[in-house]
Amino acid sequence: MSAVAKTERKAPRLIGIRELVLLAIIIALLSFFIFSGREKTIWAIVFEFSIFAIITLSLNLETGFTGIPQFGRVAAVITGAFAVGALPGRLMAYIIGEPWGAEYANAVFNYRIVPVINELLASNIFYSIGFLLLCLFTAAVFGAAIGWLISRPAIRLKEAYLGISLLAFGDFFMWVGHNWNIMVGGSTPINVPDPFRIFGGDRFMAAVLVLFFIAIVIYIYLERLTKSPFGRNLKMIRDNEVSASAAGLDVVKVRTRSLVIGSAIAAMGGGLYVIYTGSIGAIGFQKLTFTFWPWAYMMLGGIGSNFGVLMGVMLLVILKTMIIVFRYDWFAFMVNVGIDPMWLEFTLMGAVIVLVILFVPHGLVPEKVEPVLPEERVKRVLAKRQLEKTSEPVS
Amino acid sequence: MPRRYRKLGLDPRLTGMAATLWGAAMGPLVLIYLYLRTPDLRHKPFLWTWLPALFLAYELVSFYSLAYPTSPLVTNPLYLLNQVQNGLAMGFVYAIMAVGLTLIFSVQGIINFAHGQLFMFGGVIGYLLLTQVLEVNAFFAIPVVGVLALVVGLFIEKALLAPLHKGDIERPEEYAILITFGVGLFLQYALVGMLGSPTGIRAPRYTDRPPLESIPSTLRFGDFWIRTDILIAGLIGLILFLALILFLQRTWTGKTLRAVAMNQQAATVTGIDSGRAFNLAFGIGIMLTGMAGATLVAVMNFPVPELATRAAIRAYVIIVLGGLGSLPGTLLGGLFLGVAESLVAAGFPDPSRSATYQTAAGLFLFAIILLIRPQGLMGRKK
Q1: Does a structural domain hold residue B283?
Q2: Residues B114 and B44 in one domain
Q3: Does the N terminus or the C terminus of chain B have fewer Cβ atoms within 10 A?
Q4: Do B145 and B249 share a structural domain?
């Protein structure tokens, strides 16, 4: 009977009061930028939101749904960035007959080759779209490969070891990219062909809109994925690995799949970041930006809740931008104490992380406990069983 | 290979390691032999693990000397000896850096992500004391920094980490990692804000001020040389290390810490206040970290704030290499990493890039060791 009582809970609404309040706060904060005459900042916010939404959603798939302490998010991001920086541009250079070997990653040649490719891309919209899709595909393939590679130790190692190992892997990739000149130029950043050049003067707005669109598509994909049987497998493994394997799940396989999908998505995020900024320098991919900030966004939004992650990314990105824009207006008094407000962004973000974990440990939009099947269907199944039981002959 | 052993009902332990090592050392023929005959590896561990490891090392060395016959490492044995010595000294320095982290991990079971920042904090406070407050030798700053770091550590534990031990946190590892990371981020940029801008700080060396000003900064024995500062820092580190071991082995308080580390519930049953033990362990760990910072600020230049991440990543690599939570393992891991980095820097074919490859080499080594021996050099299998 207790099973029936449990399923009689109301099905959760799609958007509750909590979410509405959060949306209202976000809109109010955004309109603050408009009223203070900084409309252009909003484009920057939307750009950062899109990139970090993609990365944080992938992190949420691995950590929130699968339970892997993924402290090496930057490894997959950096792989996507390197793949997009190194390969599609080389392919284009090969097609149009420019040098594409080690010279491509040399700044002297690269700054001459890339504008030629850009002109070609800007001449035809199909070239641009094709190039963008090629970049995304390359990033996803390499990201999936690196996810598989990461999954090998991730299956064998336990929590603390795994966290540190993943962290070290991320740094390792950064140092390789920084030192290996012929891949993406090493310590000198190189340019990346720009598929958005076709929009001319509106290039940045168009790019931001495309990125936003991709982020929303990925959100919908992940939302559907985590509601599918595969998503329920993930949650089962996260909550109790022993019972999951006793129920016949191949834990290793499911975890590997989760890591491969998550890494591919994160790599797409890294690739899009490189395409938007138009250049790649390995040293820019620090674990602070691409591992710990996604973690902070995820913790604030709600671990294991995709919508919450979107809210968390938006809120913290707005907060960060506000600190950067207004730090010398609002915190000028700190100079008198002998502290430069230049670094306030990081200091306050550190404080925010600590406060969030202390006071809202489940995040602003916590993960909902949902019945696996719709209510009516559960009732129907139970009624059928009841009928079978009563009609069974007593033996 | 382990799968094959399991299928035949044999003991699969050691198999992966032996197969990897022999396979890498001798090629696939040994693998075929292992696959077909499936010998019992447990009876002769020397034959199946240490011998191929030595063989592999010999192969690597001979391959290197064939590939770069002009490298000074091959032609000049004294240079090699000096590099190894330098590596050992740096390794000792690294081990001092990591010892606080090990203590915290072995008692609390959490990883302190503010480690690098607290290390830098010790260094910066020592530097400020030496340059702006008192004109004394650098080792007088160490106990002052130690007391300050102890207070900071006790406060952090009491305020932020105490809920961990009440059992109402769902994912304790991630909670601890994130909260210490937040503290670290805050501390790092607060320090940068206090210093004004990212700078490299250079504190006066041990040999710069009395009573040691008459000692030359480099000791020479023929062609063999050693830096006096590193020697002094190594001695101080050794004293700290021994003091910690004595404290843990001989005093009642140290014994309570070890008891809590082994089994929290049993320790509570015998009347140990485990909350206090956790608090004290974290405080002492932070104290050692800060003292390490103050010791080393008089040896090397501290680039603020990059040093924090550099020191932290080395410390993490060391404690995982040595086996999490093992003090002798920490020392061994530090020496291992120091020698490896020094040799890679000295033997890299392109000298202009060798310094930047140092970090990557350490991390690469770390990945390989983890694949072959996931519990670390001196770790216990759980």
Answers
A1: yes
A2: no
A3: C
A4: yes
Looking at the structure, tell me whether residues B131 and B251 fall in a common domain.
yes
Taking a contact as any Cβ pair under 8 Å apart, which residues of chain A between 327 and 366 contact chain B?
A: 338-344, 346-347, 349-354, 357-358, 361
- Same-domain status, B52 and B145: no
Q: Residue A12, class by beta-carbon neighbours within 10 Å (0-12 exposed, 13-18 middle, 19+ buried)?
A: exposed
> What are the chain A neighbours of B309 within 8 Å (beta carbons)?
287
Dist CA B319 CA B96 (whole Å): 11
pTM, to two decimals = 0.79
Residues of B in contact with A339 (CB under 8 A): 190, 193-194
**Crossing angle of the two packed helices B306-322 and B351-372, in degrees rounded to 10:** 40
Chain segment A224-283, per-residue pLDDT in tens: 998 888 988 888 888 888 888 888 888 888 889 999 999 999 999 999 999 998 888 888
Using CB atoms, pick whichever of A172, A295, A346 lies closest to residue B364: A172
Q: Which residues pair with B303 in a beta bridge?
A: B200
C-beta atoms of B183 and A341 within 8 A: no
**Is B185 within 8 Å of A347 when comparing Cβ atoms?**
yes
> Comparing B88-102, B203-217, B324-338, which segment has the lowest mean pLDDT?
B203-217
Residue B340 lies in a domain: no
Domain boundary among B301, B331, B353: B301
Pair B59, B112 in one domain: no
The answer as to whether B209 is a domain residue is: yes
In whole angstroms, what is the distance from residue A353 CA to residue B178 CA? 7
Written as one string, the DSSP assignment of B43-80 is: S-HIIIIIHHHHHHHHHHHHHHHHH-TT-HHHH-HHHH
Name the token pair of B180: 């210490």
- Which residue's entry shows tokens 């690294």? B94
CA distances from A229 to A114, A224, A232, B57 (A): 45, 10, 5, 49
Residue from B115, B164, B170, B186 whose CB has the most chain A CBs within 10 Å, to mutate: B186
**What's the CA gap between A138 and A145, in Å, rounded?**
11
Rounded to the nearest angstrom, the minimum Cα separation between A67 and chain B is 10
Structural domain boundaries, residue B61: 2-67
* Final residue in a domain of this structure, among B301, B334, B363: B301
Cross-chain Cβ contact A163/B169 below 8 Å:
no
What is the nearest CA distance from B182 to chain A, expressed in angstroms? 4
Whether B183 and B60 share a structural domain: no
Instruction: From chain B, pick out residues whose CB is under 8 angstroms from the CB of A165.
Output: 320, 366-367, 370
Cβ–Cβ < 8 Å for A117, A193: yes
Q: Are residues B53 and B110 in the same domain?
A: no
Any idea which residue has 């001979």 for tokens? Answer: B62
- Interface-testing mutation among A65, A71, A171, with chain B (most B C-beta atoms within 10 A): A171
Domain count within chain B: 2
Residues of B in contact with A347 (CB under 8 A): 185-186, 189-190, 193
In a domain, B319, yes or no: no
Pair B255, B138 in one domain: yes
Q: Which of these, A129, A260, A135, A118, lies nearest to A197 by C-alpha position?
A: A118
Residue pLDDT, tens place only, B281-300? 899 999 999 998 888 888 87
- Span A169-181, average pLDDT: 80
